[in-house]
Amino acid sequence: MATEIKGIAASDGIGVAKAYVLVDPDLDFKRYTVTDVQAEILRLQAARLAAIEELKEIKSKALTNLGKETAAVFEAHLTMLNDPDFIKQVEDKIKAESCNAEAAQQDISDQFITIFEGMTDNAYMQERATDVRDVTKRILSHLLQRPLPTLSLIDEPVILVAHDLTPSDTAQLNKHLVKGILVDLGGRTSHSAIMSRTLEIPAIVGTEVATQKIKNNQLVALDGEQGTSTVDPSPAILEKYQEKAQKFAARREAWSKLRQAPTLSKNGQSFMLAANIGTPKDVAAVVQSGAEGIGLFRTEFLYMNSDQLPTEEDQFRAYKDVLEQMAGKPVVIRTMDIGGDKELPYLKLPKEMNPFLGYRAIRISLSRQDIFRTQLRALLRASAFGNLGIMFPMIATLEELRQAKAIFKEEKNRLIESGVAVSDNIKLGMMIEIPNSALFADRFAQEVDFFSIGTNDLIQYTFAADRGNERVSYLYQPYHPALLNLIHHVIEAAHRHNTTVAMCGEMAGDQIAVPLLMGLGLDEFSMSATSVLKTRDLMRQLDTTDLKQLATEVISTCDNGEQVKAEVKQMECKV
Questions:
Q1: 531 in any annotated domain
Q2: Has 259 been labeled as part of a binding site?
Q3: What tens digit of pLDDT does each residue of 41-83 get?
Q4: Which residue from 190, 216, 428, 525 puts its CA 20 to 30 A from 443's CA?
Q5: Known catalytic residue: 504?
Q6: How much is the pTM?
Q7: CATH number of 176's domain
Q8: Is 449 assigned to a binding site?
Q9: Residue 238 lies in a domain
Protein backbone atom coordinates (compact mmCIF):
# COMPACT_ATOMS: atom_id res chain seq x y z
CA MET A 1 0.00 0.00 0.00
CA ALA A 2 1.30 3.44 -0.95
CA THR A 3 2.58 5.69 1.86
CA GLU A 4 3.00 9.45 1.48
CA ILE A 5 5.83 11.22 3.28
CA LYS A 6 6.03 15.02 3.33
CA GLY A 7 8.83 17.36 4.25
CA ILE A 8 10.54 20.61 3.24
CA ALA A 9 11.11 21.08 -0.49
CA ALA A 10 14.88 21.52 -0.68
CA SER A 11 15.87 20.96 -4.32
CA ASP A 12 13.64 20.94 -7.41
CA GLY A 13 13.06 17.91 -9.58
CA ILE A 14 11.38 14.52 -9.73
CA GLY A 15 13.13 11.28 -8.78
CA VAL A 16 11.87 7.70 -9.00
CA ALA A 17 14.06 4.74 -7.95
CA LYS A 18 14.57 2.05 -5.35
CA ALA A 19 15.44 3.23 -1.86
CA TYR A 20 18.98 3.04 -0.56
CA VAL A 21 18.57 3.49 3.18
CA LEU A 22 21.79 4.82 4.65
CA VAL A 23 22.29 2.86 7.86
CA ASP A 24 25.47 3.21 9.85
CA PRO A 25 26.92 0.03 11.33
CA ASP A 26 26.39 -0.67 15.02
CA LEU A 27 29.30 1.10 16.66
CA ASP A 28 28.34 0.20 20.21
CA PHE A 29 31.20 -1.23 22.23
CA LYS A 30 31.97 -2.61 25.67
CA ARG A 31 34.29 -0.87 28.10
CA TYR A 32 37.03 -3.02 29.53
CA THR A 33 40.41 -2.81 31.22
CA VAL A 34 43.48 -3.54 29.10
CA THR A 35 46.66 -5.14 30.39
CA ASP A 36 48.94 -3.93 27.58
CA VAL A 37 48.48 -0.17 27.42
CA GLN A 38 51.10 0.34 24.72
CA ALA A 39 49.44 -2.24 22.45
CA GLU A 40 46.12 -0.41 22.90
CA ILE A 41 47.71 2.91 21.93
CA LEU A 42 49.19 1.26 18.82
CA ARG A 43 45.73 -0.08 17.94
CA LEU A 44 44.32 3.44 18.27
CA GLN A 45 47.11 4.86 16.10
CA ALA A 46 46.44 2.26 13.40
CA ALA A 47 42.72 3.12 13.37
CA ARG A 48 43.49 6.84 13.20
CA LEU A 49 45.92 6.36 10.27
CA ALA A 50 43.32 4.25 8.44
CA ALA A 51 40.74 7.00 8.99
CA ILE A 52 43.21 9.57 7.62
CA GLU A 53 43.76 7.57 4.41
CA GLU A 54 40.00 7.12 4.01
CA LEU A 55 39.40 10.85 4.46
CA LYS A 56 42.10 11.75 1.93
CA GLU A 57 40.25 9.69 -0.66
CA ILE A 58 36.91 11.29 0.26
CA LYS A 59 38.48 14.76 0.09
CA SER A 60 39.80 13.99 -3.40
CA LYS A 61 36.31 12.96 -4.55
CA ALA A 62 34.81 16.09 -2.97
CA LEU A 63 37.31 18.30 -4.78
CA THR A 64 36.26 16.75 -8.11
CA ASN A 65 32.51 16.60 -7.48
CA LEU A 66 31.76 19.57 -5.25
CA GLY A 67 34.66 22.00 -5.43
CA LYS A 68 37.32 23.46 -3.16
CA GLU A 69 34.97 25.03 -0.61
CA THR A 70 33.27 21.71 0.24
CA ALA A 71 36.54 19.78 0.16
CA ALA A 72 37.84 22.16 2.82
CA VAL A 73 35.50 20.46 5.31
CA PHE A 74 37.58 17.29 5.03
CA GLU A 75 40.78 19.24 5.41
CA ALA A 76 39.35 20.34 8.77
CA HIS A 77 38.62 16.69 9.62
CA LEU A 78 42.16 15.71 8.69
CA THR A 79 43.51 18.54 10.83
CA MET A 80 41.47 17.23 13.76
CA LEU A 81 42.81 13.70 13.25
CA ASN A 82 46.36 15.09 13.29
CA ASP A 83 45.80 17.49 16.18
CA PRO A 84 48.53 16.66 18.77
CA ASP A 85 46.37 17.85 21.68
CA PHE A 86 43.38 15.74 20.60
CA ILE A 87 45.61 12.68 20.09
CA LYS A 88 47.45 13.20 23.40
CA GLN A 89 44.25 13.50 25.43
CA VAL A 90 42.95 10.16 24.11
CA GLU A 91 46.29 8.40 24.62
CA ASP A 92 46.68 9.89 28.11
CA LYS A 93 43.27 8.56 29.05
CA ILE A 94 44.28 5.04 27.95
CA LYS A 95 47.45 5.32 30.04
CA ALA A 96 45.75 6.80 33.10
CA GLU A 97 42.74 4.45 33.20
CA SER A 98 44.03 1.38 31.32
CA CYS A 99 40.80 1.54 29.31
CA ASN A 100 40.23 0.29 25.78
CA ALA A 101 40.81 2.65 22.85
CA GLU A 102 37.10 2.85 21.93
CA ALA A 103 36.17 4.07 25.42
CA ALA A 104 38.99 6.63 25.55
CA GLN A 105 38.22 7.97 22.08
CA GLN A 106 34.50 8.30 22.80
CA ASP A 107 34.99 9.96 26.20
CA ILE A 108 37.40 12.61 24.92
CA SER A 109 35.25 13.24 21.85
CA ASP A 110 32.18 13.66 24.06
CA GLN A 111 34.04 16.30 26.06
CA PHE A 112 34.76 18.30 22.87
CA ILE A 113 31.18 17.84 21.64
CA THR A 114 29.77 19.11 24.94
CA ILE A 115 32.02 22.18 24.80
CA PHE A 116 31.06 22.99 21.19
CA GLU A 117 27.34 22.38 21.69
CA GLY A 118 27.43 24.58 24.76
CA MET A 119 28.43 27.57 22.64
CA THR A 120 24.79 28.50 22.05
CA ASP A 121 25.73 32.03 20.98
CA ASN A 122 28.03 30.79 18.21
CA ALA A 123 26.42 28.68 15.48
CA TYR A 124 29.74 28.19 13.69
CA MET A 125 31.36 26.58 16.73
CA GLN A 126 28.24 24.51 17.42
CA GLU A 127 28.63 23.01 13.95
CA ARG A 128 32.10 21.80 14.94
CA ALA A 129 30.35 19.24 17.15
CA THR A 130 29.15 17.57 13.92
CA ASP A 131 32.75 17.42 12.68
CA VAL A 132 33.91 15.76 15.92
CA ARG A 133 31.10 13.17 15.64
CA ASP A 134 31.99 12.46 12.01
CA VAL A 135 35.69 11.97 12.80
CA THR A 136 34.97 9.85 15.90
CA LYS A 137 32.56 7.62 13.99
CA ARG A 138 35.27 6.97 11.42
CA ILE A 139 37.90 6.06 14.04
CA LEU A 140 35.47 3.76 15.88
CA SER A 141 34.53 2.00 12.65
CA HIS A 142 38.19 1.06 12.18
CA LEU A 143 38.73 0.12 15.82
CA LEU A 144 35.68 -2.15 15.72
CA GLN A 145 36.37 -3.29 12.13
CA ARG A 146 32.82 -2.40 11.09
CA PRO A 147 33.13 -0.40 7.84
CA LEU A 148 31.00 2.67 7.26
CA PRO A 149 28.76 2.64 4.17
CA THR A 150 30.61 3.72 1.04
CA LEU A 151 28.19 5.81 -1.00
CA SER A 152 30.73 6.15 -3.80
CA LEU A 153 30.21 2.43 -4.54
CA ILE A 154 26.50 2.85 -5.42
CA ASP A 155 26.23 1.38 -8.93
CA GLU A 156 22.52 1.72 -9.79
CA PRO A 157 19.86 4.47 -9.66
CA VAL A 158 18.64 5.06 -6.07
CA ILE A 159 16.69 7.41 -3.83
CA LEU A 160 19.02 8.02 -0.88
CA VAL A 161 17.18 7.88 2.45
CA ALA A 162 19.01 9.02 5.57
CA HIS A 163 18.47 10.37 9.06
CA ASP A 164 20.96 13.09 8.20
CA LEU A 165 23.75 13.52 5.67
CA THR A 166 27.24 14.45 6.84
CA PRO A 167 29.77 16.24 4.62
CA SER A 168 31.54 12.88 4.25
CA ASP A 169 28.35 11.37 2.86
CA THR A 170 27.55 14.06 0.30
CA ALA A 171 31.14 14.20 -0.95
CA GLN A 172 30.74 10.63 -2.21
CA LEU A 173 27.46 11.10 -4.10
CA ASN A 174 27.26 10.43 -7.82
CA LYS A 175 24.61 12.83 -9.16
CA HIS A 176 23.95 10.54 -12.12
CA LEU A 177 22.94 7.61 -9.91
CA VAL A 178 21.39 9.34 -6.87
CA LYS A 179 18.01 10.31 -8.28
CA GLY A 180 16.71 11.91 -5.11
CA ILE A 181 17.37 12.48 -1.41
CA LEU A 182 15.00 12.05 1.55
CA VAL A 183 16.32 13.16 4.95
CA ASP A 184 14.72 13.06 8.41
CA LEU A 185 16.45 16.23 9.65
CA GLY A 186 17.29 19.67 8.30
CA GLY A 187 15.78 22.71 6.63
CA ARG A 188 16.36 24.61 3.38
CA THR A 189 19.66 26.02 4.67
CA SER A 190 20.99 22.72 6.10
CA HIS A 191 24.09 21.09 4.65
CA SER A 192 22.14 18.32 2.91
CA ALA A 193 19.75 20.84 1.30
CA ILE A 194 22.52 23.11 0.04
CA MET A 195 24.55 20.22 -1.36
CA SER A 196 21.54 18.68 -3.10
CA ARG A 197 20.93 21.99 -4.88
CA THR A 198 24.62 22.25 -5.79
CA LEU A 199 24.50 18.75 -7.30
CA GLU A 200 21.01 19.40 -8.79
CA ILE A 201 19.56 16.32 -7.09
CA PRO A 202 15.83 16.50 -6.14
CA ALA A 203 15.59 16.54 -2.35
CA ILE A 204 13.20 16.71 0.58
CA VAL A 205 14.53 17.39 4.09
CA GLY A 206 12.92 17.57 7.52
CA THR A 207 10.64 14.56 6.88
CA GLU A 208 11.21 13.32 10.47
CA VAL A 209 10.06 9.78 9.57
CA ALA A 210 11.67 8.75 6.26
CA THR A 211 14.14 6.27 7.76
CA GLN A 212 11.40 4.76 9.92
CA LYS A 213 8.91 4.24 7.11
CA ILE A 214 11.15 3.27 4.19
CA LYS A 215 13.01 -0.01 3.76
CA ASN A 216 15.85 -0.85 1.40
CA ASN A 217 14.80 -1.50 -2.22
CA GLN A 218 11.27 -0.16 -1.80
CA LEU A 219 10.25 1.96 -4.77
CA VAL A 220 10.14 5.67 -3.92
CA ALA A 221 8.81 8.55 -6.01
CA LEU A 222 9.92 12.02 -4.92
CA ASP A 223 8.83 15.55 -5.88
CA GLY A 224 11.50 17.96 -4.67
CA GLU A 225 9.52 21.00 -5.80
CA GLN A 226 6.42 20.23 -3.71
CA GLY A 227 8.15 18.44 -0.82
CA THR A 228 6.11 15.25 -1.21
CA SER A 229 7.13 11.64 -1.79
CA THR A 230 5.32 8.30 -2.11
CA VAL A 231 6.63 4.91 -1.00
CA ASP A 232 5.44 1.88 -3.00
CA PRO A 233 3.38 4.04 -5.37
CA SER A 234 0.51 2.36 -7.19
CA PRO A 235 0.70 2.27 -11.02
CA ALA A 236 -1.68 5.25 -11.15
CA ILE A 237 0.40 7.33 -8.68
CA LEU A 238 3.61 6.33 -10.43
CA GLU A 239 2.16 7.50 -13.72
CA LYS A 240 1.43 10.91 -12.16
CA TYR A 241 5.04 11.23 -10.98
CA GLN A 242 6.28 10.22 -14.42
CA GLU A 243 4.08 12.90 -15.96
CA LYS A 244 5.54 15.41 -13.47
CA ALA A 245 9.03 14.27 -14.42
CA GLN A 246 8.31 14.78 -18.12
CA LYS A 247 6.88 18.24 -17.46
CA PHE A 248 9.86 19.18 -15.27
CA ALA A 249 12.30 17.91 -17.93
CA ALA A 250 10.42 19.97 -20.53
CA ARG A 251 10.60 23.02 -18.27
CA ARG A 252 14.36 22.58 -17.80
CA GLU A 253 14.78 22.22 -21.53
CA ALA A 254 12.79 25.41 -22.05
CA TRP A 255 14.85 27.16 -19.37
CA SER A 256 18.09 26.14 -21.10
CA LYS A 257 17.00 28.11 -24.18
CA LEU A 258 16.94 31.26 -22.06
CA ARG A 259 20.66 31.25 -21.26
CA GLN A 260 21.44 34.03 -23.69
CA ALA A 261 18.05 35.77 -23.42
CA PRO A 262 17.61 39.17 -21.77
CA THR A 263 15.79 39.24 -18.44
CA LEU A 264 12.48 40.92 -19.20
CA SER A 265 9.01 40.94 -17.71
CA LYS A 266 5.98 40.13 -19.87
CA ASN A 267 5.48 43.84 -20.53
CA GLY A 268 9.14 44.42 -21.40
CA GLN A 269 10.61 45.81 -18.17
CA SER A 270 14.27 44.91 -17.80
CA PHE A 271 15.82 43.32 -14.71
CA MET A 272 19.28 41.98 -13.98
CA LEU A 273 19.79 38.38 -12.87
CA ALA A 274 23.10 37.68 -11.16
CA ALA A 275 24.52 34.79 -9.14
CA ASN A 276 26.18 34.42 -5.74
CA ILE A 277 29.52 32.62 -5.43
CA GLY A 278 31.89 31.57 -2.66
CA THR A 279 35.04 30.67 -4.62
CA PRO A 280 36.52 31.25 -8.10
CA LYS A 281 35.64 27.64 -8.94
CA ASP A 282 31.93 28.56 -8.72
CA VAL A 283 32.19 30.88 -11.73
CA ALA A 284 31.84 28.01 -14.25
CA ALA A 285 28.32 27.31 -12.97
CA VAL A 286 27.51 31.04 -13.16
CA VAL A 287 28.55 31.22 -16.81
CA GLN A 288 26.62 28.03 -17.58
CA SER A 289 23.50 29.41 -15.87
CA GLY A 290 23.28 32.45 -18.12
CA ALA A 291 23.60 34.90 -15.22
CA GLU A 292 24.35 38.46 -16.27
CA GLY A 293 26.89 39.02 -13.54
CA ILE A 294 27.96 38.10 -10.03
CA GLY A 295 25.96 39.98 -7.42
CA LEU A 296 27.85 38.63 -4.42
CA PHE A 297 31.31 37.11 -4.19
CA ARG A 298 31.74 36.08 -0.56
CA THR A 299 35.44 36.52 0.14
CA GLU A 300 35.35 34.64 3.46
CA PHE A 301 36.70 31.42 1.90
CA LEU A 302 40.08 33.12 1.52
CA TYR A 303 40.20 33.71 5.27
CA MET A 304 38.50 30.53 6.52
CA ASN A 305 40.32 27.96 4.37
CA SER A 306 43.67 28.86 5.86
CA ASP A 307 45.46 28.93 9.19
CA GLN A 308 46.62 32.50 8.65
CA LEU A 309 45.47 35.73 7.02
CA PRO A 310 45.60 35.56 3.19
CA THR A 311 48.31 37.69 1.61
CA GLU A 312 47.57 40.54 -0.77
CA GLU A 313 48.93 38.40 -3.60
CA ASP A 314 46.67 35.44 -2.70
CA GLN A 315 43.64 37.70 -2.76
CA PHE A 316 44.68 39.51 -5.93
CA ARG A 317 44.96 36.22 -7.84
CA ALA A 318 41.52 35.04 -6.66
CA TYR A 319 39.77 38.32 -7.53
CA LYS A 320 41.57 38.61 -10.88
CA ASP A 321 40.60 35.03 -11.73
CA VAL A 322 36.89 35.73 -11.15
CA LEU A 323 36.91 39.03 -13.04
CA GLU A 324 38.67 37.49 -16.05
CA GLN A 325 36.33 34.51 -16.14
CA MET A 326 33.33 36.85 -16.19
CA ALA A 327 34.77 38.61 -19.26
CA GLY A 328 33.52 42.13 -18.60
CA LYS A 329 30.25 41.24 -16.89
CA PRO A 330 29.80 43.01 -13.53
CA VAL A 331 31.24 41.34 -10.45
CA VAL A 332 30.36 42.63 -6.97
CA ILE A 333 32.87 41.54 -4.33
CA ARG A 334 31.99 41.92 -0.66
CA THR A 335 34.77 42.84 1.71
CA MET A 336 35.54 40.45 4.56
CA ASP A 337 32.40 39.42 6.45
CA ILE A 338 33.98 37.54 9.34
CA GLY A 339 32.36 37.28 12.77
CA GLY A 340 28.93 36.14 13.87
CA ASP A 341 28.92 32.44 12.94
CA LYS A 342 32.18 32.71 10.96
CA GLU A 343 35.17 32.61 13.29
CA LEU A 344 38.85 32.71 12.48
CA PRO A 345 40.81 30.87 15.19
CA TYR A 346 44.02 32.65 14.25
CA LEU A 347 42.39 36.09 14.49
CA LYS A 348 41.50 35.50 18.15
CA LEU A 349 38.22 37.43 18.11
CA PRO A 350 36.81 38.25 21.55
CA LYS A 351 34.16 35.91 22.98
CA GLU A 352 30.83 37.70 22.97
CA MET A 353 27.38 37.08 24.42
CA ASN A 354 25.79 37.79 21.04
CA PRO A 355 28.34 37.72 18.21
CA PHE A 356 25.71 38.40 15.51
CA LEU A 357 25.20 41.83 17.10
CA GLY A 358 28.83 42.27 17.97
CA TYR A 359 32.29 42.68 16.53
CA ARG A 360 31.96 41.52 12.92
CA ALA A 361 32.22 42.45 9.23
CA ILE A 362 32.95 46.16 8.61
CA ARG A 363 33.44 46.67 12.36
CA ILE A 364 36.47 44.38 12.28
CA SER A 365 37.72 45.93 9.03
CA LEU A 366 37.64 49.47 10.40
CA SER A 367 39.40 48.55 13.64
CA ARG A 368 41.91 46.22 11.96
CA GLN A 369 42.84 48.47 9.06
CA ASP A 370 45.92 46.38 8.28
CA ILE A 371 43.60 43.55 7.20
CA PHE A 372 41.15 45.90 5.44
CA ARG A 373 43.78 47.82 3.50
CA THR A 374 45.41 44.59 2.32
CA GLN A 375 42.09 43.42 0.91
CA LEU A 376 41.31 46.77 -0.69
CA ARG A 377 44.73 46.88 -2.41
CA ALA A 378 44.15 43.40 -3.81
CA LEU A 379 40.72 44.44 -5.07
CA LEU A 380 42.02 47.67 -6.59
CA ARG A 381 44.82 45.85 -8.42
CA ALA A 382 42.35 43.25 -9.72
CA SER A 383 39.95 45.96 -10.94
CA ALA A 384 42.07 46.46 -14.07
CA PHE A 385 41.01 42.99 -15.27
CA GLY A 386 37.24 43.36 -15.30
CA ASN A 387 34.08 45.16 -14.24
CA LEU A 388 34.34 45.44 -10.47
CA GLY A 389 31.96 46.60 -7.77
CA ILE A 390 32.98 46.58 -4.10
CA MET A 391 30.47 46.51 -1.26
CA PHE A 392 30.86 46.92 2.46
CA PRO A 393 28.91 44.59 4.77
CA MET A 394 27.05 45.37 8.00
CA ILE A 395 27.08 49.16 7.62
CA ALA A 396 25.04 50.77 10.40
CA THR A 397 26.03 54.46 10.29
CA LEU A 398 27.11 57.11 7.82
CA GLU A 399 30.36 57.48 9.76
CA GLU A 400 31.26 53.82 9.12
CA LEU A 401 30.49 54.12 5.42
CA ARG A 402 32.45 57.35 5.03
CA GLN A 403 35.45 55.93 6.88
CA ALA A 404 35.45 52.83 4.65
CA LYS A 405 35.22 55.01 1.53
CA ALA A 406 38.05 57.24 2.76
CA ILE A 407 40.35 54.24 3.33
CA PHE A 408 39.44 52.93 -0.13
CA LYS A 409 40.32 56.31 -1.68
CA GLU A 410 43.65 56.49 0.18
CA GLU A 411 44.73 53.06 -1.05
CA LYS A 412 43.56 53.83 -4.59
CA ASN A 413 45.62 57.04 -4.71
CA ARG A 414 48.70 55.27 -3.32
CA LEU A 415 48.54 52.57 -5.97
CA ILE A 416 48.03 55.05 -8.79
CA GLU A 417 50.95 57.17 -7.53
CA SER A 418 53.16 54.08 -7.54
CA GLY A 419 52.24 53.31 -11.16
CA VAL A 420 49.83 50.40 -10.58
CA ALA A 421 46.95 50.11 -13.06
CA VAL A 422 43.58 50.65 -11.37
CA SER A 423 40.15 50.91 -13.01
CA ASP A 424 38.57 54.36 -12.92
CA ASN A 425 35.08 52.84 -12.98
CA ILE A 426 34.85 50.85 -9.71
CA LYS A 427 31.36 51.08 -8.25
CA LEU A 428 31.08 51.30 -4.45
CA GLY A 429 28.09 49.91 -2.59
CA MET A 430 26.89 48.72 0.79
CA MET A 431 24.82 45.90 2.20
CA ILE A 432 21.43 46.75 3.66
CA GLU A 433 21.24 44.22 6.50
CA ILE A 434 20.43 46.32 9.55
CA PRO A 435 17.00 47.94 10.05
CA ASN A 436 18.71 51.25 10.85
CA SER A 437 20.44 51.35 7.45
CA ALA A 438 17.15 50.44 5.76
CA LEU A 439 15.30 53.25 7.57
CA PHE A 440 18.12 55.71 6.81
CA ALA A 441 18.38 54.59 3.17
CA ASP A 442 17.62 58.05 1.79
CA ARG A 443 20.87 59.43 3.27
CA PHE A 444 22.97 56.36 2.50
CA ALA A 445 21.80 56.41 -1.14
CA GLN A 446 23.53 59.77 -1.62
CA GLU A 447 26.89 58.16 -0.71
CA VAL A 448 27.00 54.96 -2.81
CA ASP A 449 26.43 53.67 -6.34
CA PHE A 450 24.32 50.72 -5.25
CA PHE A 451 22.65 48.91 -2.38
CA SER A 452 22.51 45.15 -1.97
CA ILE A 453 19.83 43.92 0.43
CA GLY A 454 21.04 40.95 2.49
CA THR A 455 17.70 39.46 3.50
CA ASN A 456 19.12 36.62 5.61
CA ASP A 457 20.37 39.10 8.21
CA LEU A 458 17.77 41.81 7.59
CA ILE A 459 14.98 39.36 8.46
CA GLN A 460 16.64 38.08 11.62
CA TYR A 461 17.39 41.59 12.84
CA THR A 462 13.95 42.95 11.94
CA PHE A 463 12.17 40.15 13.82
CA ALA A 464 14.85 39.86 16.58
CA ALA A 465 15.05 36.13 15.82
CA ASP A 466 18.29 34.18 15.39
CA ARG A 467 17.84 32.34 12.08
CA GLY A 468 19.90 29.43 13.40
CA ASN A 469 17.65 28.90 16.42
CA GLU A 470 14.94 26.31 15.69
CA ARG A 471 12.77 27.55 18.57
CA VAL A 472 12.23 30.89 16.87
CA SER A 473 12.44 29.71 13.26
CA TYR A 474 8.75 30.57 12.83
CA LEU A 475 9.80 34.24 12.96
CA TYR A 476 11.98 33.91 9.87
CA GLN A 477 9.28 35.42 7.62
CA PRO A 478 10.45 36.68 4.21
CA TYR A 479 6.86 37.40 3.06
CA HIS A 480 5.74 39.39 6.10
CA PRO A 481 4.13 42.74 5.07
CA ALA A 482 6.35 44.66 7.52
CA LEU A 483 9.50 43.33 5.85
CA LEU A 484 8.11 44.01 2.37
CA ASN A 485 7.31 47.57 3.46
CA LEU A 486 10.88 48.02 4.72
CA ILE A 487 12.28 46.74 1.39
CA HIS A 488 9.92 49.06 -0.50
CA HIS A 489 11.18 52.01 1.55
CA VAL A 490 14.80 51.14 0.66
CA ILE A 491 14.06 50.84 -3.06
CA GLU A 492 12.11 54.12 -3.24
CA ALA A 493 14.80 55.99 -1.29
CA ALA A 494 17.55 54.64 -3.53
CA HIS A 495 15.75 55.43 -6.77
CA ARG A 496 15.25 59.04 -5.70
CA HIS A 497 19.04 59.36 -5.91
CA ASN A 498 19.63 57.15 -8.98
CA THR A 499 21.11 54.42 -6.78
CA THR A 500 20.41 50.87 -7.96
CA VAL A 501 19.11 48.21 -5.58
CA ALA A 502 20.08 44.55 -5.68
CA MET A 503 19.19 41.67 -3.39
CA CYS A 504 21.63 38.86 -2.64
CA GLY A 505 19.89 36.96 0.19
CA GLU A 506 17.92 33.70 -0.12
CA MET A 507 14.79 35.72 -0.83
CA ALA A 508 16.10 36.88 -4.23
CA GLY A 509 15.65 33.42 -5.74
CA ASP A 510 12.45 32.53 -3.88
CA GLN A 511 9.71 31.94 -6.46
CA ILE A 512 7.01 33.40 -4.17
CA ALA A 513 9.09 36.48 -3.35
CA VAL A 514 10.23 37.23 -6.92
CA PRO A 515 6.83 38.61 -8.14
CA LEU A 516 6.59 40.79 -5.03
CA LEU A 517 10.13 42.13 -5.47
CA MET A 518 9.47 42.87 -9.13
CA GLY A 519 6.38 44.80 -8.09
CA LEU A 520 8.37 46.72 -5.48
CA GLY A 521 10.85 47.81 -8.17
CA LEU A 522 13.97 45.82 -7.26
CA ASP A 523 16.62 46.28 -9.99
CA GLU A 524 18.82 43.23 -9.55
CA PHE A 525 18.26 39.71 -8.21
CA SER A 526 21.32 37.69 -7.17
CA MET A 527 20.89 34.03 -6.26
CA SER A 528 22.24 30.50 -6.50
CA ALA A 529 23.31 29.79 -10.08
CA THR A 530 20.87 26.86 -10.25
CA SER A 531 17.92 29.26 -9.72
CA VAL A 532 18.77 31.78 -12.47
CA LEU A 533 17.04 30.22 -15.47
CA LYS A 534 13.79 29.29 -13.73
CA THR A 535 13.63 32.83 -12.31
CA ARG A 536 14.16 34.33 -15.76
CA ASP A 537 11.37 32.11 -17.08
CA LEU A 538 9.03 33.19 -14.26
CA MET A 539 9.74 36.88 -14.86
CA ARG A 540 8.87 36.57 -18.55
CA GLN A 541 5.35 35.44 -17.59
CA LEU A 542 4.61 38.37 -15.26
CA ASP A 543 3.40 41.91 -15.98
CA THR A 544 4.93 44.50 -13.65
CA THR A 545 1.77 46.63 -13.81
CA ASP A 546 -0.13 43.81 -12.10
CA LEU A 547 2.77 43.14 -9.73
CA LYS A 548 2.95 46.75 -8.52
CA GLN A 549 -0.72 46.56 -7.62
CA LEU A 550 -0.21 43.19 -5.93
CA ALA A 551 2.72 44.47 -3.83
CA THR A 552 0.81 47.59 -2.77
CA GLU A 553 -2.26 45.54 -1.78
CA VAL A 554 -0.44 42.89 0.28
CA ILE A 555 1.54 45.51 2.21
CA SER A 556 -1.60 47.49 3.06
CA THR A 557 -4.12 44.67 3.63
CA CYS A 558 -2.33 41.49 4.74
CA ASP A 559 -1.62 40.72 8.40
CA ASN A 560 1.02 38.00 7.95
CA GLY A 561 3.26 36.16 5.53
CA GLU A 562 0.82 33.30 4.94
CA GLN A 563 -1.81 35.72 3.65
CA VAL A 564 0.77 37.31 1.36
CA LYS A 565 1.84 33.89 0.05
CA ALA A 566 -1.78 32.97 -0.70
CA GLU A 567 -2.27 36.22 -2.65
CA VAL A 568 0.83 35.56 -4.78
CA LYS A 569 -0.25 32.00 -5.55
CA GLN A 570 -3.72 33.18 -6.51
CA MET A 571 -2.19 35.75 -8.87
CA GLU A 572 0.13 33.14 -10.42
CA CYS A 573 -2.82 30.83 -11.09
CA LYS A 574 -4.19 33.54 -13.39
CA VAL A 575 -0.96 33.84 -15.37
A1: yes
A2: no
A3: 999 999 999 999 988 888 887 777 666 666 777 777 888 888 8
A4: 525
A5: yes
A6: 0.74
A7: 3.50.30.10
A8: no
A9: no
